[in-house]
Write a sequence for this structure.
């Protein structure tokens, strides 16, 4: 299948909102008088940095639950005003970002509800979309444009120090608008993410949760699991696991160093898709297990020789580096 | 457990042959009149580069099965003479490296047997040690010092172009000498690897195969498996898997881009350890699966929050970069 054919095959699922469409009209940068960042971790702080660099916001208000985070965010100048109460942060804001674990989206939405400005865009960056829609929608007042979103970008680090303005560059941002979403609001949010350096697509929320289930959630679950298996082995000391980790294990520890609260919430809230994908993964693993037990070299070779092409296509799509070992030193 | 306590806990299993021990006697660089590299892929070509840089060999002879590899190796100047017959390459060599897939070790050893020089050191770089000992030992002539070895270093790339002189720097090299191994030969090979930038330890072959089973073999099997699962999903297009791979999946594709022949042979030859470890991994995964199904957030959080420490210790041990996302661009 050619790349073009593949792109067109995926079109029923996802509609790119950049490229050809953007070329038809002038791609002016969006500007918001006031942007509220609810949550000032990796994503919130990166949004602050890129908005400052690109001049996307007049003022930025920031909210975080912990005083420590707020204090550090203030030291870093991540916003112009800081609030422990998210409702205070969203007052008069034209664009509100919910950058909290997906399990906290509902309670936060409920809390900010009375303070949301009519005409404001309310969006989020959660890794699960159906649960966010389920939890947030009931709290969205008439006249506020709720557009769920998810930038496919991150690192294993978290907290207000973890952000940097290039985080979203050349990464995809998926928006999962609800039926009847205001086109102007959707267009403005699309241009916001494009101004952050992202490619933007819209996608059905259920499909999003399945796609991210395989490209993000299952990989993290597997990474956490293998680190746990290694840590619990009685026959191999932890010191040995650490010393000889360059054989491959170290790669998994990076994903497994991600924020445990964020990931707990992802698995609690994308349960069905993850369990379905985990079932497939285990079936495939049982087949490999049997091939090893039976000494079926041809079967192993066949499975192992398929993956190079996918790696190459990921590199060609600009989603990873061609440098060996990720170019790390 | 402190780092010191852990290091001492691992001591019954592995004996470091550098550091304090090396400080006691002058650490002169070993020099071999002639070194034979049987196999000129990633490891063979990296050995050539580092030997040239450090002046460890008078002349280097190279052997490879395929004419294409030999031709390319000649263009790159990886050796001073090139041979399709490994027996020709090892003639008069003082140090012979077997850099071939572990399944090929036995046949190659049988072939070079009549040409090995008395007093020569014969070693290998295979990822499994018990099978190499089983397959190579019967072909080692009296007076030749066979010392199995394994540098824990690599990239996802293979072939004569993949090598670089820093590959072994600050990586561990495990030697699994047989009972009665000549101490002088062992010391000379140890100093060779130290001159390549490696830390050297000796280890029992069975323990090696278990340790590498968890730090290298199982991670590769899991990586190959998840790439296969993703590729076979009918509900998610391959184009989507590639585009949104930055959510975590892309990391696995790097390991899964490794040489399929090398890895087929590893699993066929370290069957018992891999099946045992795979069993543990699956048990742990079933526990996580149940925690997700039952919505046990505390259990998930507990497992997820354990791994950050291991990541930190790997970084502190100099075995990975602290830079987010491996510092890749």
């Amino acid at each position: 299948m050619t790349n073009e054919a593949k792109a067109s095959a995926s079109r029923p699922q996802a509609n790119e909102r950049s490229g050809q469409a953007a070329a038809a009209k002038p791609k002016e940068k969006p500007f918001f008088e006031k942007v509220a960042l609810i949550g000032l971790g990796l994503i919130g702080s990166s949004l602050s940095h890129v908005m400052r660099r690109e001049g996307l916001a007049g003022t930025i208000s920031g909210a975080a639950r912990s005083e420590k985070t707020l204090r550090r965010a203030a030291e870093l100048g991540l916003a112009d005003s800081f609030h422990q109460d998210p409702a205070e942060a969203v007052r008069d804001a034209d664009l509100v970002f919910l950058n909290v674990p997906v399990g906290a989206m509902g309670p936060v939405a409920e809390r900010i509800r009375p303070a949301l400005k009519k005409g404001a865009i309310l969006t989020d960056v959660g890794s699960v979309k159906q649960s966010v829609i389920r939890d947030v929608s009931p709290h969205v007042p008439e006249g506020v444009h709720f557009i769920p979103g998810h930038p496919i970008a991150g690192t294993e680090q978290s907290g207000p120090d973890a952000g940097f303005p290039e985080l979203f560059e050349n990464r995809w941002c998926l928006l999962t608008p609800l039926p009847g979403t205001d086109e102007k609001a959707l267009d403005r949010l699309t241009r916001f993410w494009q101004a952050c350096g992202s490619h933007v697509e819209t996608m059905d929320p259920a499909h999003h949760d399945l796609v991210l289930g395989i490209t993000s959630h299952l990989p993290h679950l597997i990474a956490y699991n293998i680190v746990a298996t290694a840590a619990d082995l009685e026959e191999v000391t932890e010191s040995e696991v650490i010393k000889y980790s360059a054989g491959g294990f170290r790669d998994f520890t990076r994903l497994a160093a991600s924020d445990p609260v964020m990931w707990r919430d992802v698995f609690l809230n994308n349960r069905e898709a993850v369990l379905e994908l985990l079932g497939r993964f285990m079936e495939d693993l049982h087949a490999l297990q049997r091939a090893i037990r039976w000494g079926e070299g041809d079967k192993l070779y066949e499975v192992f020789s398929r993956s190079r092409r996918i790696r190459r296509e990921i590199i060609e799509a600009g989603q990873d580096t061609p440098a060996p070992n990720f170019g790390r030193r």
